[in-house]
Specification:
InterPro entries: Bacterial_rp_bL28 (IPR050096), Ribosomal_bL28 (IPR026569), Ribosomal_bL28/bL31-like_sf (IPR034704), Ribosomal_bL28_bact-type (IPR001383), Ribosomal_bL28_sf (IPR037147). The strands form 2 sheets. The protein has a two-stranded antiparallel ribbon. With 78 residues, it is an alpha+beta fold. It has a single domain, classed as Ribosomal protein L28/L24 (Ribosomal Protein L24e, Chain: T). Helix 1 crosses helix 2. It contains 2 helices and 4 strands. Strand 3 and strand 4 form a beta hairpin. The protein is 27% helix and 36% strand.
């Protein structure tokens, strides 16, 4: 499975390693993902999601229900 946040769609970015001599080589910045279980009281069930840590902070702030609703509106969840 690809390294993509299931709620926000965050994924790897491409950039350069830059040496002291300013030589540039390609590199990849992976998203900081963790696998986390969330309890959804409306559906009375546990859901396991692979989310970015920045998304986890958002979930702590607005709640899992609001985060899932927002992800559905943006099209990340069907």
């Amino acid at each position: 499975m690809s390294r993509v946040c299931e709620l926000t769609g965050k994924k790897a970015m491409v950039g350069n390693n830059v040496s002291h001599a300013m030589n540039k080589t390609k590199r990849k910045f992976d998203a900081n993902l963790i696998k986390k279980r969330f309890y959804i009281p409306e559906e009375d069930k546990w859901v396991t999601l692979k989310v970015a840590t920045s998304t986890l902070k958002t979930i702590n702030k607005i709640g899992i229900t609001a985060a899932l609703k927002e992800a559905r509106v943006k099209g990340f969840i069907k």
